[in-house]
Amino acid sequence: MKVDVFLHSLFCFQGEDNEESEPYLWTIMFALDGSNIKQVGDKLVGSPQVFFGPGSQGNIGSSTVSGVTQHIPPTIGKWQLDMEPISLTDGTNTVDVPGVIAVIGRLFEENLTPNSAMEAGHAALNNLVQTLLKDFIDGLDLIELGAAVQHLVATRGLTFQDAAIEVFTKKFDPVKKNLQSFAEPVTFEAIAKQLGFWGALGQAINGDTPIGGMQHFWTMDDLASSQNGAPINFTDFIGTVDRGSSAYNLHGMVWQGIDVWFTPAIDSLPPGRYRVTGVDIERGEFARWISHIGGSFPDGTPWRITREQGVDYISNHECNFFVSGNDGSHADVYVVDNDPHVGHRYLKTTSDNSKVDNLSSLPRCVAFVRHQK
Q1: Which of 31, 184, 231, 241 is the most buried (most CB within 10 A)?
Q2: Tens of pLDDT along 48-90?
Q3: Cα distance between residue 320 and residue 324, in whole Å
Q4: pTM
Q5: In which domain, by residue range, is 306 found?
């Protein structure tokens, strides 16, 4: 599965400074999935896919004021990757656990802290994420996981697949909590070490301000219904609305990176005999009538022609058509020329003892073929 993530804009409700504010954004994205993580015996081996946004102070660009939207540079907010499920087996059963993708952001206001110190904190946060993920992968005991899966199958009647997904997801929950709990302490410890005691003491007066953060997690199953043009949109309020504080909306989206397009059914036929498997009906104020008939070629490609085309094909002995019922019946389609109650020629099936082979019993035609890449 191709996946696109895009943190695209930051709206300023209220900046920390009275005039212009200078927010900057740390971004971390990672994917735990089967592209780099594999089962070897009773363990998982490998590493996550990671994206670390570059820079600290000034990495969004210009300063901002209340009511202004800043566009986040793609180097900070855009990530494209390929994901695969993690394949797990107990020797008898094999399941594909959907990969997980995460987006983490931390927003700061630039004041007087040296950029080198903030970059030290930035690097410490990146290292924390990598360490937590490595510990999760290395510490996952698949024998224990398998026992938990079997317990859910036996006690709750879940399928092996659903039970494995539930157990794996719960195992990952502590990682989410640790990311939330330890992010700020680790960051500020690194900043303080970079500044030294007296420097850190001075920064307490007018140092760069942490405004707040956000984090999101999605599985590949969550993304399955999204696509180009139909993403999962998310908005995070970061900050507070108290006087003298900062308040922003961070906007982003994530989607399965597929293109979807449609091609119409074939609208003409070479000479031959064709099974009709669908009809389209038009309805007027006092009557209804067949507007199109349709079917498919031997390779599965659908065809769909107008009633007038069908009438001409039959009248000119170029094509003939039939309907097959699910009871084994067959009825040929013929042209009604001179019905005094209808002002045009139309199509009908020959009479027999079955109704399921009538044109009127068929579903709608297949009008388009859906493609995706």
Answers
A1: 31
A2: 999 999 999 999 988 899 889 999 999 999 999 999 999 888 7
A3: 14
A4: 0.68
A5: 262-372
